[in-house]
Amino acid sequence: MASAGQPLTGADHFHLLIDRQMRQKGLPGNISRIHLRLAPSADLMALAEMLEQNPTLNRVAHLRLHHRWPALPKWIGTSADSPDIFIHRDLPEEMFQSKVLNGPVGATTVPVRIDLCAWNDGSKHLVVSMHHALFDHRGMTLFLQSLATGQSDGQLFIRSQRRPWRSEAMDALHGMFSALGSAGWNLATLAPKHLRPTEAALHREISFSIEDSGRMDLAAQQHGAGPGRSAFYMAVVLVALRELLESRGERPPYFWFPVPHNMRRKGANGHLIGNELAFLFFKIGREALFTVPQAVAAIQMQLNTQIRKGSLGHQAALQRVFRRVPFWMMNAMVGLTTGGRVSSLAFSDLGEERNPLQEFLGVPVQGMAHIPPVPCPPGLSVVFKREAGQLRLIVAYLPQALADEECATLMGRIRVLLLTPRTTKGEQPLKLTSSRSGC
Amino acid sequence: MAANPDIIQNTLLAYLSEHVLAEGVTITPETDLPSLDVDSVTIVEMAMHLEERLGIEIPVNLLTPEHTRTVSAFAAHAVQHGKPLR
């Protein structure tokens, strides 16, 4: 890191904006967490001592956000005490949810924390909580690997690149008009108007078998999702959300949401700190959400159009330029163009993890869950990821946006749609009579 | 214009080296693209690049993971299904 600090990337700064909105609503912030279920033989004290010595954890835990407008926001190193590592013993499961999975992490306080927990049923757990302004998903994976092996190698910070200001400004303008210009005030949302969360976010996860994941791959191809599966996952989620809103008696005209895309160079580990993301924006009308093939086609068309226009580059430039804009102004721009709704949902497809973590500092890992932040608004985050050929669906939500029973219905419906092959009649609506309690 | 598989292959390899892959990562026509984390958006970008460079339109929705596992498989698909841009 340069002595003057490491400038945040445009995507880091975007995550700070989301963090600010969440904190204003009383939520812990824009924090991603990874929950590992460890073997019951794990010695939590020994793990805490080893982690305390981890050089990567120490470097990251001592970073603080330094932001004095109009200068670029930066990460600066501090000489703080030991990293935040907490041990909880005899913890009831419900306390784990409210205390650990909502534990505070902040860009200006401590950006990472680790909780080692022994539940009162004898099971052992480890939660790594990370501020999203520091890490994209790849960075989180690298950070976890570094904690799990005790080794730190590779590049700590992203390398900054300078671009000619004129092309940067033009690209940013393109990005602003194409993204915010398409939003409008009538976008679908599960959240009530003026959502003010009174309870912590919840999350649910379905892990599909390898056989079911293979059936879903086939269904994605049959539905015309092309080389990837993301368009299929998005289509299924949107169809299920439309049905859910209709069950509430609502018929919003369209869904509008951003989808992050990993802009890192491929084939190498790359840097640890710094989000390298750009967003594609989708506006899918209700009329395209009656069948999955229709929805896939609409998503594919918008994806191709945006790639053809170079939208990812425009969005990346817009994010970089926004680092010079005060937060209140960004908030106002996003709020005004979306009628305060911000987005219909937060959606990510994290891709495939080919070598899921098997051990953490010598302790066998029995399970791993990724707990995404729940931006507020919209109060709903849907994440897909694959681990060694198995698909996982994670839905994180605020209870005021989605009731528990509704979440069960939504996930059950997503499951059914993911497993439904395309009918030979193609555009015929899929039957909606399948079980709604499949999760 | 008849689609020449060698030209398509070389165009894709050059695109990947210049715009997609990290410094020092080498690629051949048979390199497994998913193992390099080449994702579906990048595949669509590759198809658009062929369109722009060589005037070949590829129906992206017909691409399957098998067609995009390697550059040579992608090129073979482009030869078979690509159409000259109107």
State the gist of this model.
The complex is a heterodimer of chains A (439) and B (86). By secondary structure, chain A is an alpha+beta fold.
Strand order of the largest sheet of chain B: 1-2
Oligomer: heterodimer
Number of discrete domains of chain B: 1
Strand content of chain B: under 5%
Helix percent band of chain A? 25-40%
Mean pLDDT reading of chain B: 92
Portion in helices of chain B: 40-55%
Per CATH, which architecture of chain B? Orthogonal Bundle
Level-1 CATH class name of the largest domain in chain A: Alpha Beta
The total strand number of chain B stands at: 2
What is the succession of H and E elements of chain B? HHEHE
What would you note in describing this structure?
The complex is a heterodimer of chains A (439) and B (86). Chain A has 439 residues and is an alpha+beta fold. The radius of gyration of chain A is 21 Å and the shape is globular. Chain A contains 12 helices and 15 strands. The model of chain A is unreliable at 426-439 (pLDDT under 50). In chain A, the strands form 4 sheets. A 6-stranded mixed beta sheet of chain A has the order 5-6-7-2-13-12. Helix content of chain A is 36%, strand content 23%. In chain A, a hairpin with a 4-residue loop joins strand 6 and strand 7. Chain A has helices at residues 10-24, 44-52, 55-61, 93-100, 137-149, 165-179, 210-222, 230-247, 292-309, 311-322, 327-338, 404-419; strands at 6-7, 31-38, 63-66, 74-77, 85-91, 112-119, 124-131, 202-207, 254-262, 277-285, 346-353, 359-360, 363-371, 380-387, 390-397. Chain A has 2 domains: 6-149, Chloramphenicol acetyltransferase-like domain (Chloramphenicol Acetyltransferase, 2-Layer Sandwich), CATH 3.30.559.10; 167-353 and 374-419, 2-Layer Sandwich (Chloramphenicol Acetyltransferase), CATH 3.30.559.30. With 86 residues, chain B is mainly alpha-helical. Chain B has one domain (5-84): ACP-like (Non-ribosomal Peptide Synthetase Peptidyl Carrier Protein, Chain A). In chain B, 49% of the residues lie in helices and 5% in strands. Chain B is built from 3 helices and 2 strands. Chain B has helices spanning 5-20, 40-54, 71-81, and strands at 56-57, 83-84. In chain B, strands 1-2 form a two-stranded antiparallel ribbon. The longest helix of chain B has 16 residues, at 5-20. Chain B is globular, with a radius of gyration of 12 Å. The N and C termini of chain B lie close together (11 Å). The model of chain B has no long low-confidence stretch (mean pLDDT 92). The chains are: A alpha+beta (439), B mainly alpha (86). Chains A and B meet through helix 9 of A and helix 2 of B.
